[in-house]
Amino acid sequence: MADQGKVAQAHQDEELLTLLYGQFQRMLFSQVLCLTNYDRQWTEDVVQETLIRAWQNSEHLVREPGMLRGWLCTVARRIVIDGWRSRQARPQEVELLRPDIAESPDDTEQTLSVMVITDVVRQLSDEHRSAIYETYVLGRTVKEAAIVLGVPEGTVKSRLYKAMHTIRRALQDRS
């Protein structure tokens, strides 16, 4: 009698697997594909894991197709959520091929340029500095800067030209 029970259970398991693969594999694959941002390898893994869990829980599953579909979709969604959480919890590791040549960014040139520009801007007249401040720092147009400074637009343009020319020359001289 025990052998007949095992045979009957094996037959039911085989019917369940046939039903799962035949009716639900494609539907499950398409739904999981969206959840995994179209990562086909991950989708295949999730679908396989979902179907394995269905087989492991075969004695508890209701064999009605609507119930099976809901159960499969829920399990697959939870597997994907667990996958996303584990990917967020631990940053991706990157292998450093040769640790002896690990480079850190060299900001020396940029720092030197900032120092030179700061020094040159300090040497400019107040009028030239204010023209640069109004246009380049505050982002005003020449017309707006002219109104704020109380001078004609042409004067603002002239001051900007002279100031930028002085800054460029200083950068060329120091490089």
Report the count of strand segments: 0
Amount of beta strand: under 5%
- Structural class label: mainly alpha
Average pLDDT number: 84
Q: Overall 3D geometry?
A: elongated
Low-pLDDT segments, ≥5 res? none
Profile the largest sheet: none
**How would you spell out the order of helices and strands?**
HHHHHHH
Number of helices: 7
Please tell me how large the radius of gyration is: 35 Å
Could you explain the architecture of this structure?
The protein has 175 residues and is an all-alpha fold. 77% of the residues lie in helices and 0% in strands. It has 7 helices and no strands. It has helices spanning 2-35, 40-56, 65-89, 108-123, 126-137, 142-149, 153-174. Helix 2 (40-56) packs across helix 3. The longest helix has 34 residues, at 2-35. The chain is elongated. The mean pLDDT is 84.
Topology:
Blueprint: H1 2-35, H2 40-56, H3 65-89, H4 108-123, H5 126-137, H6 142-149, H7 153-174
Helix pairs in contact: 1-2, 1-3, 2-3, 4-7, 5-6, 5-7, 6-7
Keywords: DNA-binding, Sigma factor, Transcription, Transcription regulation
Domain RNA polymerase sigma factor 70 region 4 type: 117-164
Domain RNA polymerase sigma-70 region: 20-89
Which features would summarize this protein structure in a list?
DNA-binding, mainly alpha, RNA_pol_sigma_r3/r4-like, Sigma-70 family RNA polymerase sigma factor, about 180 residues, single chain, elongated
